[in-house]
Amino acid sequence: MASGSKKSYSVSDMIEQNSNKGFSLKIEKAIPWILFAIAGVSVLTTLGIVFTLIFETMTFFSRVSLFDFITGTKWYPFSIENPNYGILPLISGTLKITGIAVLVAVPIGLASAIYLSEYATDRSRRFIKPILEVLAGIPTIVYGFFALTFVTPFLKNFMPELSIFNALSPGIVVGVMIIPMIASLSEDAMSSVPNSIREGALAMGATKLEVAIKVVLPAAVSGIVASVVLAISRAIGETMIVTVAAGATPSLSWNLTDSIQTMTSYIVQVSTGDAGYGTTIYYSIYAVGFTLFLFTLAMNLLAQYISKRFREEY
Amino acid sequence: MKSFKHLAMSAMVGSALLLGACGANGGAEGNGEQLSGTVKVDGSSTVAPIAEAINEEYAGVQPDVKVSIGVSGSGGGFEKFIAGETDLSNASRPIKDEEKTSLEEAGIDFTEFKVANDGLSVVVNKENDWVEEMTMEDLRKLWLEDGKTKKWSDINPEWPDEEVKFYSPGTDSGTYDFFHEEVLEEKDMVRQNIQLSEDDNVLVTGVTGDKNAIGFFGYAHYLANKDQLKVVKIDGVEPTNETVESGDYPLSRPLFVYAKNESMKNNEAAYDYMKYTLENAGEMAEAVGYVSLQEDQYKEALETLEGLKK
Questions:
Q1: Alpha-carbon distance A292 to A95, whole Å?
Q2: Residue A314: band (very low, low, confident or very high) from pLDDT cuts 50, 70, 90
Q3: Bridge partner list, B118
Q4: Any CB–CB contact under 8 A between A262 and chain B?
Q5: Is B165–A259 a contact, with Cβ atoms under 8 angstroms apart?
Q6: Which of A1-5, A51-55, B224-228 comes out lowest in average pLDDT?
Q7: Which of B101, B94, B76 is nearest to B86 (CA)?
Q8: Which of A76, A264, B70, B71 could form a disulfide with A239 if both were Cys (CB 3.0 to 4.6 A apart)?
Q9: Closest in A74, A81, A273 to B188, CB measured
Q10: For the domain bounded by A75-309, which CATH number is listed?
């Protein structure tokens, strides 16, 4: 750059000089292919995972009927005399955790987002947002032991009937874990609502709260709902917290204070033992994994659909 | 505070096990020459954890000796032993008379080596003030699947009318197998309110945190968490080092390795592996959750083994 002040080139000279360099030209041409190949790696990985899941799941269903799997209300794979492979207890466990997590995370996440986008000064936003996002960086095993060794004993003070392994405490902690996701993405959506709309509403005599709730929130609804759906999908797939704190007792009930088992923690339970290759139990983790995959896939597609369908263009 | 203590305890136990394993590693050098060959081992899945732990260490000392450890169960192991397919046979029970006869008929001389003791411990919550002891019959009744939700009062009408929470080692563990064979006589274990885990710490956490819990695991693991648990006397006997070793505790049993004399004499790799096993079985047994024998029992066994070589 320093040379620029001494000599001056004309633009056409510079273009000529550059186009003489055959090597850089080759690079220019190769770059798209290199980038394509790199992008392909993740696509191939996804395909590989999906196909592995599908093949192993098919082996499972050659031994256990699909109908029993979907409609069965008993999940007793370890029984030697009479094993049952009905996925509903595991799904109910996963949904309990997800439900509690959503109840915790949506109000707190949304309130944080509204505060950050509508009320917070620049200074406090710069202070609060990173702290909120630190929550997203805490390893889930730490959250798990937080649930087991702090939240559960704490809740036991108010609910003596709470089991040491239960749905409530890990559900709440999973909720805490997904707060930053909802808060951060919703805040982005609300901040991108143009100021002119806010000012218009204020000029019409609306209070700040009315602007936030009745103007900004509806305008940003697609981003907010998408963030919630993504957070749900994260909660469904959450593994470590539920493995540590929710127990391993598959049961189909509405009870939140007893030990449960989620789809993810079942997979962990089997893989920490040495379930022999080729046993039905071994294949069952693929079937459960595939079910889990369908759930999260549906959630992600839903999020995409919502953010496109209800998008407000400015 | 209690749970913090548990965490600290688990950490301490974990590091103790680790140290134990390292110690075995350190003490295991010095045979000098490098051997090669194969050693075939089969038998009890209960002994397998010790055998596998020893094998892992042994692979570091004699990397060219290939040791294959099968888990066909004590009986299945003896079948192969009788057929002459294996050099060593692991067993969680003494050899049966008919198996002895078959071995004699096949012309196979063998020597019995005790490698460790196991005393499966049944534990309940500290706040549980009703269970002091159970008979084997009570234990079977409590843990057997019968289609109903188990309550304490099913076993003894004086016990509370509350649902029992079960904690059991996972189905892949030898401890589960032993319980399944000895207590349940190969019948199905309860299916409701039960939590299976391969991680013994989870079982301890569960039993510690739940007044209506009952669980079982290897004796060594009970010892490590003694302060937080209440052990149940079985047929009036409490598991201690003495009762487990003497066999007075009903759920205790010695664990054996049976060696083919001919292999000890002619297969140098098999002899060396057996020697290594006896030298390290105590530490390895404690590390994987069993009770070590007395030091001189191992010494005696080593002398017996040396005698086989001549």
A1: 11
A2: low
A3: B253
A4: no
A5: yes
A6: A1-5
A7: B76
A8: A264
A9: A81
A10: 1.10.3720.10
Q: How do residues B236-289 score in pLDDT, each as one tens digit?
A: 999 988 888 888 899 988 889 999 999 998 888 999 999 999 999 888 888 877
The runs of H, that is alpha helices, within A149-279 are 152-156, 168-191, 195-203, 208-210, 217-219, 221-237, 240-245, 263-272
ipTM associated with this complex: 0.74
Residue contact A163–B165, C-beta within 8 A: yes
Q: Do B170 and A269 touch (CB under 8 A)?
A: yes
The residue ranges of every structural domain in chain B are 2-117+255-308, 119-252
Q: Which residues of B fall below an 8 Å CB-CB distance to A?
A: 2-4, 6-7, 145, 165, 170-173, 180, 187-189, 191-199, 202, 205-206, 208-210
B207 CB burial (10 A radius; 0-12, 13-18, 19+): buried
For residue B9, the model assigns a pLDDT of 47
> Cβ–Cβ of A165/B188 closer than 8 Å?
no
pLDDT of residue A211: 93
Superfamily of chain region B2-117+255-308: Periplasmic binding protein-like II (3.40.190.10)
Contacts of A159 (CB under 8 A, 6+ apart): A168, A257
Q: What is the pLDDT of residues B10-57, one digit of tens each?
A: 554 444 444 444 434 433 444 457 888 889 998 877 788 888 889 999
The alpha carbon torsion through B263, B264, B266, B268 (nearest 10 deg) reads 110
Instruction: Specify the pTM.
Output: 0.72
Contact yes or no for A248 and B196 at CB 8 A = yes
**Cβ within 8 Å, pair B170-A82:** no
Min CA distance, A243 vs chain B (Å)?
A: 10
Tell me whether residues B195 and A259 touch, CB distance under 8 A: yes
Q: Which of A148, A249, A273 sits opposite B193 (nearest CB)?
A: A249
Asked whether the predicted pLDDT for residue B126 surpasses 50, the reply is yes
Q: Residue A249 has which token pair?
A: 């007792």
CB contact at 8 A, B62 and B91: no
Q: Which of A151-165, A230-244, A271-285 has the lowest mean pLDDT?
A: A271-285
Domain B119-252 in the same topology as domain B2-117+255-308: yes
Closest Cα partner for A168 from A184, A190, A187, A153? A153
> Mean per-residue pLDDT for A79-86?
85
B310 CA: distance to closest CA in chain A (Å): 41
Cβ within 8 Å, pair A259-B198 = no
